Amino acid sequence: MKKFFIAFLGTLAGIWFSLFIAFIGVFVVLGAAMASSLGSTTTKIEKGSVLLLNLSGQISDRPGSLDIMSAIQGNKTEIQGLNDIVGAITAAADDDRIDGIVIDCNGVAAGAAQRQAIVEALKKFKEDAPEKWIYSYSDSYTQGDYYIASTADSIFLNPIGQVDVHGLSATTMYFKNLMDKLGVEAQVVKVGTYKSAVEPFLLSQMSDASREQQQLFLDNIWGAIKTQIAEGRKVTPDTVNAWANGFTFADDVKTYLDNKMIDALTYRHEFDEKLMALTGKDDVDDIPYIDPATYCKDKDVNKKGNGKGANIAVLYATGDITDNDGEGIVAAKLVPEIMDLTENEDIDGLIMYVNSGGGSAFASEQIWEALEQFKAITGKPFYVSMADYAASGGYYISCGADKIFAQPTTLTGSIGIFGIIPNANKLVTEKIGVTLGTVQTNPNANFPTLMEPMTPTQKAAMQSYVERGYDLFTSRCAEGRGMSQDSIKMIAEGRVWDGAQALKLGLVDMLGGLDMAIAEMAKELNVETYTITEYPTLKPKWYDAIVEAGADIKAGIIKNELGECADIYETVNRIKGMSTLQCRMDYVTINM
Known about the structure:
Blueprint: H1 2-38, E1 49-55, E2 59-60, H2 68-72, E3 80-81, H3 82-92, E4 98-105, H4 112-128, E5 133-138, H5 143-149, E6 154-157, E7 169-170, H6 176-182, E8 185-191, H7 199-202, H8 208-233, H9 237-245, H10 253-258, E9 264-265, H11 268-279, E10 289-290, H12 292-298, E11 303-304, E12 311-318, E13 321-322, E14 329-330, H13 331-342, E15 349-356, E16 358-360, H14 361-378, E17 382-391, H15 393-396, E18 403-406, E19 411-413, E20 417-423, H16 425-432, H17 456-481, H18 485-491, E21 496-498, H19 499-505, E22 510-511, H20 514-524, E23 530-535, H21 542-562, H22 566-576, E24 581-584, E25 590-591
Helix pairs in contact: 3-4, 3-12, 4-5, 8-9, 13-14, 17-18
C-alpha cells in the first residue's frame, strides 16, 4: 500500500510538472511571437522583388494568430489572411519594385470561394501588369493548389512529383444509429423540405432531397473551377473533366507535359536558379522574396489612389452566429459594432463580408435589424460580399443589403429554420437505470426537458413557433430582395444554392468577390480614390493570446487523441451550445 501511494503521488507530481512546463512553454512561445511581431514593423522592399505566395498552412478571411500547438512543436505557423493575399497581389501590379509573383504550392487549407478570390486577383494582376510574370512550383500539386496555380504563366513540377485533379465531393456523417445505441432521440421541428441540417440526427443515410441539392451545387461549382483551369492551361473544360475522371496522381510525369497540365519538370534547385537569373542574384538566399503580410505592412493596400475620395467600411462577419458568446459572429458584439458605424460620420458606405453557414435565429434577427437601422439612419449604401458560405442565418443577415455579391463557388440560400430538443429518456432510464419523478403545477411546467419526450401538444406548439420564425425569415428576404414572400418561399424550403444559381433566382445581384463589391460601391459614391477601413479592428491583448492559446491546446489535444472521431465530438459539442431556434445550413465541407 505504501509503495502504491508513493507511485500515485509520483505520478501526480509528474503530471503537474508537465503542465507547469507546458504553461511556461506557452508564455515563452507567446513572448517570442510578440517580440518577433513588434520587432519587424518595417521592411525595405528593394527593386526587383518577388511576391511569394506560400500556399501552406491555412487561409482565413483575415490574418490569424500564431498556431500555438505548432509553435510548441517548433513550427512557426501563422494563419494567412485572404485580405492580405488579395490586397498584396492587387497592389503589386502597380508597384515597380515588384517584378513578378511566385506561387509555392504546399497544400494550403482554404475554401473554394477563398481560392477563387486569389485566382481573380492573379488574373487581374496579369491584365494590369502584362510585363510582369507569375511562376508556380510544387513538389506535388493538390487539386486546390493547382486551381490557383492554373493562372500562372508557367507551372513547374518536381520530376518525381504529381498533379492531382479529381473533381469535388461532399461527405455528411449521420448519427442516427449511434444515437439509437445511446438511447437518445433527436426531437426535430423544422420548415423546409431541403432543410437537411437536421438529417444527420434523424436518418442513417442521405435523403433524396439532400442528395439532389448537393449534386446540383457541386456540379455547378466544379463547372466554374474546371472552366478556370481550362482557361489558364488553354485546354477545354471537357479535357479538365477527363483529367478528373482518371487518376492523374498516378500518371507518368511525362503525360503532364503531353496533356498541357504543366510546362516543365524541374527540381527545386533548378527553379531557384531560374529565379536567380530573373532577379540577377548569385545566391538563392539573396532572391528578394516578400510575403503578402510583410508587403501589406509596407504598402497601404487599403488605399486606392490618394485615398481621399471616400472611406468605405468593410465589416467582417465570419463563423457561427450566436447570441452572446463564441468565436464567430456574436450578436452581442456585432450589433454594437454596427450601431457604432451608424454614428461614424467618417465612413461613406458599408460592405459586410459574410462567411457563415448560420446559427441562432434570434441573433440573426438582431443583426438584421441593426443593419436596417444603419440604412435608415445614415442613408448610406450597404452592400454584402459573400465568401465560401452565406447561407441560412448567413443569408438572413445579408438579405437587406442594397446589393449582394457572391462568388460562383459560394454556397448561399438555405432559407429555412429548425429546432432540436434531444430526448435522453432511454439513455437515463434504460441504459443507466435511473428513474425519474416529476412534480409540476402546470401541464408544461418542465418543458423543454431532456428527460422526457415531447407530448403531441408540445410538439405542435414547437412547430407553430418554428413556422412563425420561418414566416419572419422569408418576409425579411422578400422585403430585402424586392420580391413577394410567395416567390421567396418557392426557392426557400431550406435549399442550398451555389452563387451562379442564386444569381438566376434573384437571391444575389452580381458574381464577384470583395474587390468587385468595393469597386461597385466606389462607382455609386462617384469616387476614383478611396480608403478601406476594416472592422472589427484587430487589436489583440496579451491575455487574449493566453486564452486563445488554451483553446488551441485543447483543440489540438482533442484532434490528436480522437483523430477522425474529432468531427463527431465537435458536432455534438456544437449542438450542445445551440439556441432553440436555428437558421443553419447543412454541415457541408466541399472536399477539393
